[in-house]
Amino acid sequence: MTPRDRHNAFSNAIGESLWGFQMAMVAPATVLTVLLRHYGAGERLIGSVGAIESGAVLLPQVVGMYLFTSRKKRKVRLVLWHVLLMSPVLLVMGIVAPAPGAMPNRAVTIALLACFGWFQTAMGVIIAVWLDWLAHLFEPGIRGRVFGISWCCSALAGTAGALLAGHVISVYPPPVAFSCLYAAASVFTVGSMAVFCLIKDPAADALDDAPLAGTTGLLDSFRSSLGDRNFRSFIIGRIIAIGGFCIVPFITVYYTSAAGGGLAPGTVVKLDAARTVGSSIGFLILGRMGDAAGHRLGVMAGIAAQVAALAVVLVSAGRISCMMAFFGAGLAAAGGFLSHTNMLYETCPHDSRIAHITVGNLVMGVVSILCPLLAGVAAARYGTRSLFAGCLLLSIAALLWFAIRVREPRELAVDVR
Q1: What is the pLDDT of residues 385-402, one digit of tens each?
Q2: Which of the two ends of the chain, N or C, has the fewest CB atoms closer than 10 A to its terminal CB?
Q3: Which CATH number fits domain 3-416: 1.10.1790.10, 3.40.50.620, 2.40.50.100, 1.20.1250.20?
Q4: How far apart are CA 60 and CA 49, in angstroms?
Q5: pLDDT tens-digit series, residues 229-245
C-alpha cells in the first residue's frame, strides 16, 4: 500500500467502527423490533421494518446520481448529508420513543416507522454514490482486504453496541432506555462522519472536476448492465437469496415467544452481538478470499450461512439456539454485503460503475420491499415456523442457482482475453 492508501484505510476503518457501533445500538431487527412490540405492534407491522430497511435503501439510489454530480466535492457533500439529514432523525426517534403518555401507542409506532423510513431513505439516496466513492479510493487488488478489515472493525464495534443496548434495555425502563440509545446513536453518527473527513480524496485535489454521469447515457448504461447474461444471473440469484432471508426481525419475535424459549427482550438484544461477531469474522475472511479467488465464493458462503441459520431456528429454541441463529445471520450479512458489493463492481460491463450499482440495486429493491411485507402476512396467517421453512427452501434454491448459473467475473475476463 502507498502511504495515502494506508492513511485512507485507517481512517475508513475508524469511521466504519463508529458507524457500526451506533447502528448496533439501534439495530432495526432487534432494538426497533423490541420497541415496536412493546407498544403493541403485530406481525404485519414488524414485517414492514424489513421492507423499509431494504427498500428505502435500494430504491432512491438514482436520486443520488443527480444530487452528487461533482467528484471534487463528493466527500464534503456526503458528510454533510449524514450530519444534517440523518443524525437529527435519530434524535427525533429518541424523543418520540417515550411519548405514549402524550399520544396513542399506534401513533407512536407509526411515528417511529416514519422516522426510520426517513433515515433509511436518506441512506438510500447516497449509498450508490458512497460505494462508488469508496471504490475509487482503493485499487481492486487491495479493495477486498481494505473493505473486509474496515467492515470487520465495524462489526466488532457493533458487538459492543449490541451488548450495551441489551444492558441498557435490561436495566432501565423502556422509555428512558430507548431514548438514551437513539440520542447516543445520533452523536456517534456525527463522530463517524468527522473521521471520514480525514480521508484524502485524490479527486478533491484535481485541477479539473470530472462530473459523475448525469442523464446522458444513463439509460444506455442501465441497458448494457441488464444485457449482460452473467450479471442477470447474479441479480436473479441475489433476489432469490433476499427472499430466503427477509425474516431477521422475526428471529427476535420467535425467541421472545414461548415457542422460542420465552427469552427477555434485553437478553435477545444482547445475544444479537453474535450477529456482529459473525459479520466481523465473515468480513475479514471473505475480503481476503475475494481478493485472491474472486467474490462469487463469498456470496455463496453467505447464502450457505443463512441456510444454516434458518435450520437452527427450525429445530431448536433457547439462548444457545438464538446465539447460533444470529451468528449465522451475521455471516450471511457479510457475504450479502462485502462479497455482493465487490461482485457488483466486477460485473460492470461499461465505465459507469455508479450506474451499474444503481440499476442492480433498483431491481433488487422492489423484491426487498415486497418480501418482508409478504413475510409479515405469512407469519400472521401461518406462524413463524412455516415462514422459516419456506425461506429455507428459497435459500437452498439460491445456493444451487449460484453454483450452476453464475460465473466468477474474473474467469469470464480470462475467457475474453
Answers
A1: 999 999 999 999 999 999
A2: C
A3: 1.20.1250.20
A4: 17
A5: 999 999 999 999 999 99
